[in-house]
Write a structure and sequence with these properties.
disordered C terminus; 2 domains; globular; SWEET_rpt; 300 residues; sugar transmembrane transporter activity; cell membrane; transmembrane; mainly alpha; single chain
């Protein structure tokens, strides 16, 4: 299994570029998991994309051992297996119990059971070129599912008209990676490598088109008006009511004085009730052992 093809050096060049771009893509979720470690919470993130990515990387490593001349698939997917395993381990460490158990079940079922089943079936039921073909098409199916994962992000961009969850640099690297591996498959004359990267190229281009459309879109954010709490001095209520009544009387002479006296009388009743409530509250506080009145204060 040669690393560098003397007959077609473009195989090595395109594969090397694919390794570099895929290296960056594998490290893209790193800030997310650093934040998970700092906050000790998964914050609602899902583990399925990382479990599926690990499974896909394992399949491509197996395919690279079966397919002659595909050594560069081994290097990048080995790195991918290590990185995805670290991501999953961090997720399991900080996820809630239900999410943790679901992740472990999926890991055991897909990356353990399904992969071992494929390995045994391909190894014992196929031979020669048919082994490459069967395994190659299995890799195409799962690689396509990985490339189709950004569809949910694209849908979210269209609905919210915001590119916050779709960074341009990541879309660019995904597109560049798809181009590099597409060329690698073409130069290696391997449709199993080329086909899923055609889909990856299309999705990458669509993401950049969406970014160009919505990058300057101004979303209207309606913020809740927060009314600060105020402390009302009941002893001043009578003066406030008097001033308001005087203003109304000066602007509208038709209002009678009896309405003013009625309003002032109501304010006096409210004042007396408030004083009574305060007195009763103070009596209750004095009856409590070791009570601290400051614990009940509310700052605006």
């Amino acid at each position: 299994m040669g690393v560098f093809s003397a007959d077609n050096p473009w195989v090595f060049i395109s594969g090397l570029l694919g390794n570099i771009s895929s290296f960056v893509v594998f490290l893209a979720p790193l800030p997310t998991f650093i934040r998970i470690c700092k906050k000790k919470s998964t914050e609602g993130f899902q583990s399925i994309p990382y479990v599926v990515s690990l499974f896909s990387a394992m399949l491509w490593i197996y395919y690279a051992f079966v397919k002659p001349g595909a050594f560069l698939l081994i290097t990048i997917n080995s790195f991918g297996c290590v990185v995805e395993t670290i991501y999953i381990a961090i997720y399991v460490a900080y996820a809630p119990k239900q999410s943790r158990m679901f992740t472990l079940r999926m890991l055991l079922l897909l990356d353990g059971g399904v992969f071992c089943s494929i390995l045994l079936l391909i190894q014992f039921l196929t031979k020669g070129s048919s082994r490459i073909d069967y395994l190659g098409w299995i890799c195409v199916v799962f690689a396509t599912s990985v490339f189709a994962a950004p569809l949910s992000i694209m849908r979210q961009v269209i609905i919210t008209k915001s590119v916050e969850f779709m960074p341009f640099h990541l879309s660019l690297m995904l597109t560049f990676s798809a181009i590099a591996w597409l060329l690698y498959g073409i130069f290696l004359k391997d449709l199993h490598i080329a086909i899923p990267n055609v889909l990856g190229l299309v999705f990458g281009m669509l993401q950049m088109v969406l970014y160009a459309i919505y990058r300057n879109y101004k979303t209207v954010v309606i913020e809740e008006v927060k009314v600060p709490q105020h402390t009302i001095d009941v002893t001043k209520l009578d003066a406030v009511v008097d001033s308001e009544v005087e203003e109304i009387s000066s602007s509208e002479p038709q209002i009678h004085d009896d309405h003013r006296h009625e309003t002032v009388a109501k304010s006096c009743i409210l004042q007396n009730q408030t004083h009574d409530d305060d007195y009763q509250r103070d009596q209750k506080i004095l009856e409590l052992p070791n009570s601290n009145p400051m614990l009940g204060t509310c700052e605006a």
